[in-house]
Amino acid sequence: MSNASSSAASGAMDPVRAKRGLWSSRLAFILAATGSAVGLGNIWKFPYITGENGGGAFVLVYLLCIAAVGLPIMMAEVLIGRRGGLSPVNSMRAITSHEGLKPAWRWLAVIGVLAGFLILSFYSVIGGWAISYVGTAATGQLTGQTAESIGAIFSGLLSDPLTLLMWHTLFMALVMVVVARGVRSGLERAVSILMPALFVLLLVVVGYAMTTGHFGQAVAFLFQPDFSKLTTSGVLVALGHAFFTLSLGMGVMMAYGSYLPKDISIAKTSITVSVMDTAVALLAGLAIFPIVFANGLEPGAGPGLIFQTLPLAFGQMPMGSLFGTLFFLLLIFAAWTSGISLLEPLVEWLEEQKGMNRKVSTLGAGIVCWLLGIASILSLNLWSDFAPLGMFAMFEGKTIFDLLDFLTANILLPLGGLLVAVFVGWYMSRQALESELSMSPTVFSVWYRVLRYFTPIAVAVVFVYNLV
Ligand code: PHE
Which family does it belong to (predicted)? Predict the structure, then answer.
């Protein structure tokens, strides 16, 4: 055990902790955590998996997963971070040593750090798609297009590895620049302006979507559950997405929680973050599906869905080039703040653990992640028929990109979350939890029961059902 982590458990006198500083306010934490949560998961992924899984019933399961699984785990993760006061892996070490538990628990944070690294590799590629669409929108290429020609622009992009590489490189560089300089300088201010702007632009698109004459159909699609369309794998996808969209199961909330001052309510802040994240996802659905139906597009079109629908809307609405450019700029920004949070836990750990300088660790981790991203790029074109684990039924037809998405969102993140629930619910002392959460005894006991019983059982059942 390193000096840093053993002394961290003893509290605020610790030199490492003292050096790190804290968020300037409750709002600062909310902004950073929301910046991590709101990203491509809400605007790119949520609509397309909803389309693939038949709409209403899937959305209902997703909302249940957010409230009954995601939120309690978010509180548990923030709690671990604040109690440990270090990077996720070392916070886990500090808590286990303080509470006399097995140090092996820190592996749950290691799984998370690994998951974040894997996610960033393909997340950056999608972030690159958004960058490319800024140019497409700004140069007026979307104006007056048809669904076919918009589809052709998108498939043209996917079939061009060099262009994809260029934008992936730019996205990764943007992430690395911020992480190398330390996450908190600048992030607070940027998030507080750009997040509300993204929200307003989404409302503009929803406003446009209301004029398409298919808004009612979209509302019915999203909110009228038809359980005959829900499959067991759909339930797994909904659960996995609850983790993905709230940035859970990989230590982000632990890392950000470690900067949270003691007098701030973990429950209130976690609820705020979850509600905002869900609102953005639902708005994205309301923006996209009217356009899908109005243009006779396929809701289950897959990962390209928003890149084939939103451009159509921007091509038809007044001042569409301007709104389109702004929208994709804000999408890049949302993806950027999430990308930063995906790299941060790994870099923090390298820095603390290996004594590496922040710039060097960012550069090393970023470059390896960038290299891995190239495999995802190639799986969209030259390697599109290559399914590395295709011999197993559950991975049939999955490219490298699909596999990375599946492995992280549907396996690693829920597994990380499950371990967090078990660790906090069954191993940490109740007294430690009560002192961190300081909420009314009734609310505490609801949270505690959900975390101890409901959350682990729900995750385990969904897992077992899908793997067997
Ligand atoms: N929550 C982010 C999104 O919805 C993605 C993410 C996942 C970020 C896990 C950090 C950790 O886009």
Answer: Belongs to the sodium:neurotransmitter symporter (SNF) (TC 2.A.22) family.
In whole angstroms, what is the distance from residue 428 CA to residue 96 CA? 8
Centroid of ligand 1 to alpha carbon of 38 (angstroms): 7
DSSP code of residue 296: T
Give CATH for domain 3-9+20-467. Answer: 1.10.4160.10
Which of 244, 250, 276, 411 is the pocket-test mutation for ligand 1 (most atoms within 8 Å of CB)?
244
Q: Are 51 and 299 in contact (CB under 8 A)?
A: yes
Q: How far is the CA of 451 from the CAs of 97, 421, 435, 442, in angstroms?
A: 22, 6, 17, 14
Q: Which of 280, 282, 310, 284 is nearest to 295 (CA)?
A: 310
Handedness of CA 59, 63, 68, 74 (dihedral sign): positive
- What DSSP character marks residue 12? T
Residue pair 90/84 in contact (Cβ under 8 Å)? The answer is yes
**Secondary structure of residue 23 in the 3-state scheme:** coil
Can you give the pLDDT at residue 10? 37
> pLDDT of 312-353, one tens digit each?
888 888 888 998 898 899 899 899 999 999 998 888 888 887
The pLDDT of residue 230:
95
Question: Could you report the per-residue pLDDT of 154-209, keeping only the tens digit for each?
Answer: 999 999 999 999 999 999 999 999 888 876 666 666 777 788 888 888 998 899 99
Going by alpha carbons, the residue nearest to atom 6 of ligand 1 is 247
Q: Give me 258's structure tokens.
A: 């470690």
Burial class (CB within 10 angstroms; exposed 0-12, middle 13-18, buried 19+) of 126: buried
- Cα separation of 186 and 31, whole Å? 12
The preferred substitution site among 247, 252, 331, 333 for testing ligand 1, maximizing ligand atoms within 8 Å of CB, is: 247
Cα dihedral 343/459/55/341 (nearest 10): -10
Q: In angstroms, rounded to a whole number, what is the distance separating the alpha carbons of residues 144 and 318?
A: 11
Q: What is the pLDDT of residue 319?
A: 85
| Ligand 1 center–CA 69 separation, angstroms | 16
How far lies 195's CA from each of 33, 259, 276, 334, 335, in Å? 12, 21, 10, 7, 11
CB-based contacts of 289, cutoff 8 Å, min separation 6: 47, 51, 209, 214, 217, 218, 221, 222, 299
* pTM attached to this predicted model: 0.90
Condensed to tens digits (0 to 9), the pLDDT of residues 209-242 reads 999 889 999 999 999 999 999 998 899 899 999 9
In this model, does residue 12 exceed pLDDT 60?
no
CB of 121 within 8 A of CB of 377?
A: no
Residue 409 is predicted with a pLDDT of 86
Could you give the CA distance from residue 122 to residue 137 in angstroms, rounded to a whole number?
Answer: 23
